[in-house]
Structures are given as structure tokens and as C-alpha cells.
Write a structure and sequence with these properties.
By secondary structure, this protein is an alpha+beta fold. The chain contains eleven helices and ten strands. α3 packs antiparallel against α4 and α6 packs across α7.
């Protein structure tokens, strides 16, 4: 395998209220080998992903059925792990959205996207297929990002609805680790607790409690990636868990593995031998 890149790119200023970042994954494997599968943990994010070269396939962790993604997909938040299989010439550009962007774009009810995806072309029309055709023939990554941002700006201007206090509350949860009081979040959103939970579920696709649990797990996973020498107790406390057993409980719930067992699986992910991390 040739080491290409795993890269995070900031969006342009005009899109920063809607897009957190672009994640680029590029690998080229020798035709004689089978590209390794990637164990994909639940992530606290909605995203739009473009597969620019070979298609990506996936399977749910307890299923042998392998499904091929379309050229461009819109993903909901997952509470279950997946196995993903890239092609020999793999280039994916993932648009990681701000927490309530997908809801505010009014593409689909986000609850319908939990643990699944939709073909972006089915919901956004020929503009997506036209963009995908352009990306396929482009060589420079900067040109690809520019084309994607032009598409996103048009989408935002056409469909976006006004920011509300609950949008800021969901962003606050994302930016601040640990358990945050629902009473406080509801108050900041000018809602009762019951109203806040209902609105949060409508805009994020799950309860605030579940979102916080996935967010903690994601932080722990990424911290171990960038600091492999840290012990799991240190990681647990740094990411808002009460203790190591609290961390173990969440890892088993969302990956069916203990933290050390999961890390052993993660070691064989594409790019590991070159020090490239999905962080």
C-alpha cells in the first residue's frame, strides 16, 4: 500500500456555521492484496460523503451481508459499529456537519437516518450526480474541495432555516466534554426539559443522553489514537467517565469489545503502519 493521507480541512468562513470540517481519506493498494477492513465506531456526527475513486462497501458488525455505498451518501448518527471496505484506489471526502445542520437543511427527518444512510442523489437531485462526475475527473484535492463548497453554499442558501437557541445548545454539548445538566441546556434553549428533549431528538435523531455517550466514546477513541501510551484510566477520566469501568461499559455497548480489545482491532486499520490515524 502506498501511504497517501488522512487529512482534516477547515471549511471556508461562509460555511463554518454549517460544516465542522472535511475529512479526506486517500489510499492506494497493490492489486495483488485485499485492502483491510476498517472497524468503524459510532460517531456523534451527520455527514455527507463523496467516494471519488473506487466505491466503498460496508457491513453491519453482526451481519455477513456486504452493501455498496452510492457515489455520494448522507449518513445519520450510528449507535452500532460497522465494518467498512475500501477499494484498491480509495478516495473519500467526508463533509462533517455541525450538529443540527442536516435538520435545518430539511433534507429528511433525521430520526429516519439513525444507523443508516441515504443516497444523496435521491434527495438532492441531479446537482449531486453532476458534482460527482466533476470530482471523478479532478486531480487536485483543492479543486475538489472548492467544487464541494460551491455545492454546499448553494444548498445552504436554498434550504437553510434560521438558527434557534437549541442549535447553540447542541453545539455546546459537542464542544464541552463531560455530563452537562439537561436543566441548564433546556434553560439556555428557552424550553422546558421535556420540550428540549423532544426538540433535540427531532434535530439530532436521538436523545441528549445518548448523544453525550457517543460523544464521550468518540473522544476516548481519538485520544487513544493520538496518545497510545496513555493508560485507559487516564483516558476515561480525561473524557468525562467516572472511572475505568464506566468506560468499559460504554465500549461494550457501542462496539461489543473492551477498550484494549477494540484497540487491538484498530491496530490493523488502513494507514496504521504509516502512522496515519483517524482522529
Amino acid at each position: 500500500m502506498e501511504p497517501i493521507l488522512i487529512k482534516n480541512i477547515k471549511p471556508c468562513v461562509a460555511l463554518q456555521d454549517y460544516v465542522r470540517l472535511y475529512q479526506v481519506y486517500r489510499f492506494v493498494f497493490n492489486a495483488a492484496i485485499i485492502p483491510p477492513a476498517k472497524f468503524h465506531t459510532p460517531r456523534p456526527e451527520h455527514s455527507i460523503t463523496f467516494y471519488v475513486r473506487d466505491f466503498q462497501k460496508f457491513s453491519y458488525i453482526h451481519s455477513d451481508k456486504i452493501i455498496t455505498y452510492p457515489r455520494c451518501i448522507i449518513n445519520g448518527i450510528y449507535t452500532i459499529p460497522l465494518k467498512r471496505y475500501g477499494g484498491h484506489d480509495f478516495l473519500a471526502i467526508k463533509v462533517v456537519l455541525q450538529p443540527t445542520t442536516l435538520s435545518r437543511l430539511r433534507i429528511i427527518e433525521v430520526k429516519e437516518l439513525t444507523n443508516t444512510f441515504i443516497n444523496a442523489e435521491d434527495y438532492l437531485g441531479n446537482e449531486v450526480s453532476t458534482l460527482c462526475e466533476k470530482l471523478i475527473v479532478m486531480i487536485e484535492l483543492s479543486h475538489m474541495i472548492e467544487a464541494i463548497e460551491h455545492f454546499l453554499l448553494h444548498l445552504v442558501h436554498k434550504s437553510y432555516k434560521i438558527t434557534e437557541p437549541i442549535d447553540k445548545a447542541s453545539s455546546y454539548i459537542f464542544k464541552h466534554p463531560g455530563n452537562i445538566s439537561l436543566d441548564w441546556l433546556a434553560d439556555q434553549s428557552c424550553l422546558s426539559v421535556r420540550q428540549f428533549i423532544r426538540r433535540f431528538e427531532a434535530q439530532i435523531g436521538m436523545s441528549p443522553k445518548m448523544f453525550q455517550k457517543i460523544l464521550r466514546l468518540d473522544r476516548a477513541y481519538k485520544l487513544k489514537n493520538i496518545s497510545p501510551d496513555l493508560d485507559w484510566l487516564h483516558i476515561a477520566l480525561a473524557c468525562g467517565y467516572y472511572d475505568y469501568q464506566h468506560l468499559v461499559k460504554d465500549f461494550k455497548e457501542f462496539t461489543a469489545l473492551t477498550p484494549p480489545a477494540f484497540y487491538e482491532v484498530e491496530k490493523v486499520a488502513p494507514g496504521r503502519e504509516f502512522g496515519l490515524y483517524d482522529s
